[in-house]
Protein 1
Amino acid sequence: MTQAPTPVPKEPIVIGEIIARMTRSEKLGQLCIVDTPPAPFPDEFVESIRTGRIGAIMNLVEPDQVNELQRIAMEESRLGIPLLVARDVIHGFKTIFPIPLAQAASWDPDLVRECTRVAAHEAASTGVNWTFAPMIDISRDPRWGRIAESFGEDVHLTGVFARATVKGLQGENPAAFDTIAACAKHFAGYGASESGRDYNTTNIPENELRNVYLPPFRDAIEANVLSLMSSFGDLDGIPATANDHLMNTILRKEWGFEGVVVSDWEAVPQLGVHGLTADDKESAEQALRAGIDIEMASMTYARYASELIDEGRISEVQLDALVANVLRMKQRLGLFDKAQTDPAQFRTPGHSKHLDLAKRAAVRSMVLLKNENGRLPLRRENNRSIAVLGPLADEPNDQLGTWVFDGDPSLSVTPLQALRARLGEACEIRHARGLNTTRHRAQDGFAEAVDAAKSSDVALVFLGEEAILSGEAHCRADIGLPGNQAEFLRAVHETGTPVVLVLMTGRPLTLGDVIDYADAILLAWHPGTMAGPAIVDLLFGNENPSGKLPVTFPRAVGQIPLYYAHKITGRPPTPETVVRMEDVEKGLPQHAVGNTSFHLDVDPSPLFPFGYGLSYAQFEFKDPVLDTVEISTGDSLSISVTVTNTSDRYAGEEVVQLYVRDMVGSLTRPVRELKGFQRVHLDPGASARVTFRLTTDELAFYTRRKTIETEPGRFRVWVGADSTAQMGAEFILLP
Ligand code: NOJ
């Protein structure tokens, strides 16, 4: 690999001058992105590039072909404008990193920035210069398949990862040879779709939109994201792709965003399907008015924009503003100076640096959910025979998860392969799938697996969801283990052999029916290329788990949405007031204990709360101190706490989390909100003083006065190991 210097611009491109020379058809060419037809390319497609009627293409990853199309655009078209070349590079290109939800479980934005840096490097080698990532939709419904692509339920955590991924993809300089443009999506509120059905309606009041769904987009913009994608969703009656309030008032006027907004796939003509517009021409008009710069996949702009301008429904000035946004993005990407890629400048896929990073990210993103009697880590000397069971123990594709168009399964190391490689002859490994797939119902494979478990020291059972069960349009109404997996696990458990359950999944699962069948549960998510080595390192204690849940695990689907930063309500449940089904059956009158907010048939608490995750070490928190109990607007205060690793054998890392509650607000406020976190490494017996600084800006929210401001009054802070932390203190923000 030879490192190329970042190109020096030949002479500054003056966007206004280019636009002044453009014909209307050339302008409209900049406002569409088309799916690339298979090679050999049809003449009409190539001619459209040559005549400037296509300014952006997607889904082409053959460097020679990309280079040839760029050459035609730059040398044979009248104005020599380079192409945007887009691809969904969501959690890696050839080397696949853990799914974004898992990356968020690492609570390690620096590591995630490195992962996206490598993803950009691999993608850029093919000539791709734009990815549709990160997805920063707040996701509070695990039924929604796309929760896998999100950073989970929390505003602060999602914002931190929005910044990290944008910085990783775009690097310090988006014009560098191996960085690509990021696209924060889906603006806005897509994750709130009703009952977790993809593409469904969202009704988000302004208060919630501004306080929950929009802040991560602000973060991405502050990190200089070059583009945003509009959501497919209907936001309070006006689909995002036509939503003037969202796109013009908030994004352009209030936030001053100067980047590109691209529609989602065919979302412009779908305005008609929503019933917002009568035909494609009106759809084009509404999307143009909303300031959607680039229409993805469909061609309503190309067909109707000119007529709309001639009829005076869209002005030439409006059109030029959209074109300017697109040309500015191409300029920021340095494409006018160098649009060609040279694969020889890049590290090859499968480079050890990429695989090492993929393993490190997988290790850090896995969450230890249960570890009864210190079953883990396993000791080699006590585990001379191991049953490796389940449909996901040896699936190079499924461990990659959703959205891996270019992921290379031949680079994958599965858990079974890694166990064999690591344990060698000294350990007898008995492998049986038990079930063909995670959806399989037949029990014909159980006996072999049960026999393997019976004759082994431990059973490692790999269950969960295949990749195909999560991601776009892969939503589920029942989020338990699919198929007959629960029954299978019970059968293995009944052998009496200790059971370690390794869960591979793209979403939180309801595990109530299986949790007792496993002595230990390691949540691996869909961990990517290096799943196997990461899992083996964790199971055998070469690494200590340190991932924490970025999303709440409910006990039952009926609890959804269940998230830690909920409102308290006027009648919060308490242990004294919650009535259980058993009590109803006993005839206990509900009013005897008070009517509060709960379900009769499920414990109101989550199965595992946001922020939760165990370690082989134990951590103790003590001596919380605030440096002041009164602050004024513009000031900050510090909160410190001593964290001790009380284990005598295991070094480990704890993610120390800071939560705040604004006790009284002009609008009701969440019961607590994450405001900061720090990873601390502690050797056995070691302590560290961890200090957070909290500014009053971080206490601001979109208030009843419809501005973002702080409100004086009482605040409570908690510091601890998850969102249920009890150790805290109070301070006052003075008027
Ligand atoms: C539809 C998805 O919603 C979006 O996230 C993706 O980037 C586009 N398709 C392009 O593949």
Note: Residues 159 and 219 are 6 Å apart (CA to CA).
Protein 2
Amino acid sequence: MTKIAFIGLGNMGSGMCANLAKAGNEVRAFDLSADAIRKAEEAGAKGAPSVGAAVEGAEVVVTMLPAGKHVHQVYFGEDGVTSNAAPGTLFIDCSTIAVEEAREAASKASEAGFTYMDAPVSGGTAAADAGALTFMVGGPDDGFARAKPVLDIMGKNVFHAGAAGNGQVAKIANNMLLGISMIGTCEAFNLAEKLGLDAQTFYDISSTASGQCWSMTSYCPAPGPVPTAPSNRDYQPGFAVAMMLKDLRLALGAAEGAGAETPLGGHARDIYAKLDEDGHAGLDFSGVMKRLKGEI
Ligand code: NAD
């Protein structure tokens, strides 16, 4: 039994927090939304009235927040985690934030006597609810050893990606590749169809040929070949355009800072930014197919 503070009980955090409580840990939960706290209580956690109250006496703090500014505010802001946690408390931030923001948080936490691990996730709300997330973890070896048993409850794959920030590096590099490969897959299916080759036949060939990729075989953007894909429910997410755009912006910002050339990553970001601007932020990211067909 571990004493855990869980902060950020949204779409992802609610299921993750519930799984920690279900596994027999003493979990104190806080969110800005009273409703979210009530739901966490129903799932077996104890509601806390503030960040400070959640963190008091905790051995581990887990956060699942929208973006870097929230993470920095929760950890280092007035009456935040660092001013209330006992020395040596382990911090695990599962939010997707910029690599630099994660590295800065790790060094500020370390100066204050804490270990901070960045542990962003792959997998959506269904995986969060089912305890089947993949965690990509950055931070020191001893922090990883302490974090792993907690992450194992919420996930099925837990990778140590290296030093502070490397979890975020793995996350954004992977998702940049995903954005690019999805657009490429949409273009290929659209081209095949325009030239008279139906989606199923093209799928049967390409999924066993060199064009095969996850965007095709798990998430096919053409309706039909993969029944569970969002394309079969008019591109309801799944993984929304807004989420892909967030990750691509993080990837492109980090690439610029590191001097890494990412021409296709930049193009993918622009395509998703245009969809977002045009009011399609809530569409699944495979909905690029609808744009190529001129439907949106
Ligand atoms: P969400 O907006 O549903 O949840 C965030 C929660 O944080 C909200 O309940 C909000 O009230 C709370 N919050 C914000 N500021 C706070 C503060 N100062 N103190 C306490 N609580 C605060 O977001 P989400 O979909 O759960 O995503 C969380 C993170 O996970 C994001 O970084 C996102 O990029 C990442 N992520 C999401 C998905 C997904 O499918 N939703 C998948 C992978 C990664």
Note: The pocket of nicotinamide-adenine-dinucleotide is lined by residues 7-13, 30-33, 36, 64-66, 70, 73-74, 95-96, 121, 124-125, 243, 246 (CB under 6 Å).
